[in-house]
Amino acid sequence: MSAPVLPLNSRGKLASSLPAEQLAEISALFEFRRKGYSLDAPFYTDATIFKMDMEAIFGQHWIFAGSVAELPEPGDYITVDYGPYSLIVLRNDDGGVNVLHNVCRHRGARVLTEAAGATGNLVCGYHSWTYSPEGNLIHASAPGEAKFDKNCFALKRAHGREVAGLIFVCIADEPPTDFDETSRIFEPYLAPHDLSKTKIAYQQNIIEEGNWKLVMENNRECYHCDGHPELACSLFPTWGLTEGLIPAHLEEVWDRNKEAQSSLEERCRRYGLPYEVVEELDTRIAGIRISRESLDGEGESFSADGRRLSKKLLGDLPDFRLGRCSMHLQPNSWFHFQSDHVITFGVFPINEHQSLVRTTWLVADDAVEGVDYDLEKLTYTWKQTNLQDKAFVELCQTGAGSPAYEPGPYMKSEYQVEAFINWYVQRVQEHLA
Ligand code: FES
Ligand SMILES: [Fe+2]
C-alpha cells in the first residue's frame, strides 16, 4: 500500500504530491539544520530535495537571467534553462522583455533550441505551430481541422523585469514584491555603469559537477582565496576579514587596504557614487549584499597590477580608479562592476549534482577588441578563478556523497555562506508552511 498523500497545497505541487512520510522527513531535515554548520548530505545529493529547491526557490523567486547586452534589439532572445524549466526571454518592441515558457502547447517540444538568437514569430520545429513574440498562437494549420480555438493555446507567460540593465525572471504566479525594495538599493550603484551601452566581449558556460548550493556557498566566501593566485593579485588578501581578525603577517596589507578604501571612498563622494556596504542576505526575501571596494595595485580592474583592461570607460564614469562595485544576490547570482568592464555570474541548476555557471564579460559598446582591449587579458583572471572554483565545488560534491561526510562548522570569514544557507532554509520552510 502506498503512503497517504497530503491534501493539495495551493503553493507547491511537489509538496502536495509527496507522501506525508517523505515530506515529514524532508521538513525535519530543514527544521533540525544545525546553525553555523554546513548542510546535511542529502541537501547536496538527494533528487527530491533538488525538486523541492526548484519548487520553493527557483519556482518562487526572482532569478537573474542575463543582461540587456545579451538582447539589445527587438526580437533578440536568450533561452534560460534551470532544473526542469526552460524560458525564452525576448526583447519586445516596447523595450521590455517577454518571458515565455519554452514548451510548445501542441505536444510540448522546445520551441527555441538555441541559447541566443533573433526571431520574429516563434516557430516550433516539430509541427510548425507559430507564436507571436507575446506568445499568442497565430498559426497551427492541419488538414481537416475545423474547430480549434487558438486563443486557448498561447505559450505560458512568466514575469520579467529589468533593473539597471540586469534582467530577472520569475515563474511564480505572484512574484515576491520585496524585489522592488532590493532594486532601489542596487540601482544607484549599478546605473552609472550603464549596461545599455555595453556589449558582450565574452561569455563562458561551465558545467560544474556540483549542487547549485555548493556553487553559491563557494562564491560567498574568500577563505579559500589562497587557491586563486590570479584573483589574489587584485583582491586584497584581507578580503572578508574585519578588524580584530587580521593575522600579524597581514597587518601591512590591511593598512594598505584601508588606505586604498578611504581614497576610493573620497573619489566616490566627489563623483556622487554610492559605496557603502548594504548587507541583507538573509534579512529580506530578495537577499542582497552590495558595496564598492578598492582593488589592489592601481585599483582600476581585475589585472595583475590593477590597471584597466579596457581603455573605454563605461557610461559616464569619470575615473578609472573606481575599484569594484560587487553585488551578491540570492539565490543565483553575483556581479563585479568595474569602471572599464562588468562581469555577471549566473548559476543555473541542472540536477542535484550538476550546475551551469554562466560568466559574461561586458565592455563599452564602442570598445574595439584588439585596440581597446585584449580579450585574453580581459578574461584571464576570472577564467582561471572559475576553473579553480569548479574544482573546489567538485571536491565538496564528492565529499557530500561519502558516508563519512558530516556537516562542519563555518568559520567567521564564512559568515556569508551561513547567511546564504540561512536564507535558503527560511525560504523553503516558509514555502512548506
Ligand atoms: S510540438 Fe510544437 S508544433 Fe507540435
Ligand atoms: Fe573562489
Give the number of DSSP strands: 17
Strand order of the biggest β-sheet: 1-10-9-4-3-2-5
Q: What structural class do the secondary elements suggest?
A: alpha+beta
Number of helices: 10
Note the main sheet: 7 strands, antiparallel
Rg is: 23 Å
Beta content: 15-25%
Described by the principal axes of the CA atoms, the overall outline is globular
Give the CA-CA distance, first to last residue: 27 Å
The succession of helices and strands, N to C, reads HHHHEEEEEEEEEEHEHHHEEEEEEHH
> Are any ligands bound, and if so which?
FE2/S2 (inorganic) cluster, fe (ii) ion
- The poorly predicted ranges are 1-12
Mean pLDDT score: 93
- Kindly state the percentage of residues in helix: 25-40%
Explain what you see.
- This protein is an alpha+beta fold.
- The protein contains 10 helices and 17 strands.
- Mean pLDDT is 93; it is low at 1-12.
- The site of FE2/S2 (inorganic) cluster has 8 residues, from loops.
In brief, what are we looking at here?
28% of the residues lie in helices and 23% in strands. The protein has 433 residues and is an alpha+beta fold.
Descriptive key words:
433 residues, 7-stranded antiparallel β-sheet, single chain, binds FE2/S2 (inorganic) cluster, alpha+beta, 28% helix, globular, binds fe (ii) ion
Task: Tell me the layout of helices and strands.
Elements: H1 13-17, H2 20-31, H3 42-45, H4 47-56, E1 63-67, E2 76-82, E3 85-91, E4 97-101, E5 116-118, E6 122-123, E7 130-131, E8 137-139, E9 157-163, E10 166-170, H5 179-190, E11 198-208, H6 212-219, H7 229-232, H8 251-271, E12 278-280, E13 288-293, E14 324-329, E15 333-337, E16 341-351, E17 354-364, H9 375-400, H10 415-432
Antiparallel strand pairs: 1-10, 2-3, 2-5, 3-4, 4-9, 6-7, 7-8, 9-10, 11-17, 12-13, 13-14, 14-15, 15-16, 16-17
Residues 104, 106-107, 109, 124, 126-127, 129 line the site of FE2/S2 (inorganic) cluster.
